[in-house]
Write a structure and sequence with these properties.
- The chain is α+β, with helices and mostly antiparallel strands.
- The strands form three sheets. Strands 1, 2, 4, 9, 11 and 14 form a six-stranded antiparallel sheet that branches.
- The protein starts with 5 loop residues before the first helix and ends with a helix.
Length: 250
């Protein structure tokens, strides 16, 4: 029977503990506009006719490199929502009459148009829609949590540091308006867009919070190297190997 010496056991335990500590991390707030406070709500209605465009609203956020130095895995999102067709104490179902998700919440990339113009770019991934929420407040909104899809911690993190993204909310098929709370005052660095202002605007952010886990084992985003550059790099490496081999022979 193979025996492992005590120092090796201690080393193995230390390595295992280090790996565990390197991958385990608590969920942190990446971006939060709730402290701005409530001043109104953006009312979003579903299309009246099949094939119509649903009302939508989007809020821009950036990823803080202090909390996400290597990027963050998205855990959940909190929105301040209310229903335009329910009273205080009502259970608001987010399923339509067919049992499908009546709203959609997704993360989009940022499209910078120059100057103060930022708009949602391409959709990156969808968040899970909860079945319902209790409407405790109509004016002031209600905290509604949306879970993110599972992500591979060994791949590039979904949310990269110093990068802007958008939360994109739309009313796909609910029979009542859904309202996303906002703050009416202007705030530097805040951008929003809506179905009536698709080119985006500066200030007056929607109320939301993005939660994530700092990724210590995530790989760097894939960088596409042009083919000529890749060939040049490979050629340089081969020359270095040949030179080293000749020196050893000498």
């Amino acid at each position: 029977m193979l025996k492992i010496k005590a120092p090796l056991k201690k080393l193995s335990a230390a390595v295992a503990l280090g790996l565990f500590a390197g991958t385990a991390s608590a969920s942190v707030s990446i971006y939060d506009t709730f402290p701005f406070g409530y001043s109104g709500g953006e009312s979003l209605v579903a299309p009246f006719f099949e094939g119509g465009e649903p009302d939508w609203a989007a809020g821009r956020f950036t990823v803080d490199p202090f909390n996400c130095p290597n990027g963050c895995l998205l855990d959940s999102v909190r929105l301040s929502l209310a229903s335009g067709g329910h009273f205080s104490g009502d259970l608001v179902s987010l399923k339509d009459s067919s049992g499908n998700d009546g709203i959609s919440l997704a993360v989009y990339s940022n499209n910078f148009l120059g100057g103060d113009s930022h708009i949602p770019g391409d959709k990156l991934f969808d968040l899970s829609i909860p079945d319902s929420f209790v409407q405790l407040e109509h004016f002031g909104g209600n905290d509604v949590w949306f879970d993110a899809p599972s992500q591979d911690p060994n791949e590039a993190a979904l949310l990269q540091p110093n990068t802007a993204y958008w939360l994109f909310l739309s009313n796909e098929s609910l029979s009542f308006p859904i309202e996303w709370s906002y703050n009416g005052a202007g705030h530097d660095g805040q951008y929003y867009a809506a179905y009536w202002n698709p080119l985006g605007a500066h200030g007056s952010p929607y109320l939301f919070e993005v939660m994530g886990t700092s990724c210590t084992s995530c790989s760097a985003p894939v960088s596409h190297v042009p083919v000529p550059g890749a060939i040049w790099l490979m050629g340089t490496a081969m020359i270095g190997l040949v030179t080293s081999w000749r020196r050893k022979l000498a």
